[in-house]
Design goal:
mainly alpha
């Protein structure tokens, strides 16, 4: 049990996780990112609405799909979003390693017992 607290403390003090939290806060506090995120959300809703009336290969759906693509591209290409996604990728690798090293043996063992 003590090891779990040590791991928790190590993760809380890991520079990659600290950087991710900082980058996330910067991104969330950016009005420009909020505007791009809202435009993306609106484009998603418009595309989903158009699919209720037209097939995905229709000209109407393609028009809104292109709009959705552009909104997503604009959001993902913002420097703060790019910085956050890079930090997120690094932290995800840390958590994947923890998953593989610590928890994977338990998952494999549990699956064998269910058979």
């Amino acid at each position: 049990m003590k090891e779990a607290y040590v791991l928790k403390e190590l993760l809380e003090n890991d520079e990659r996780i600290i950087r991710l939290k900082k980058d996330e806060k910067e991104m969330e506090n950016s009005e420009e990112v909020m505007r791009l995120s809202y435009a993306f959300s609106c484009a998603q809703n418009e595309y989903n609405d158009i699919l209720k009336h037209f097939k995905t290969d229709s000209d109407e759906a393609k028009k809104y799909q292109r709009k959705l693509y552009e909104a997503k591209k604009n959001l993902d290409s913002h420097p703060l979003v790019k910085k956050y996604l890079q930090s997120y990728q690094e932290v995800r690798l840390v958590y994947n390693k923890i998953q593989d090293e610590i928890f994977k043996p338990f998952i494999a063992h549990e699956c064998k017992e269910k058979r």
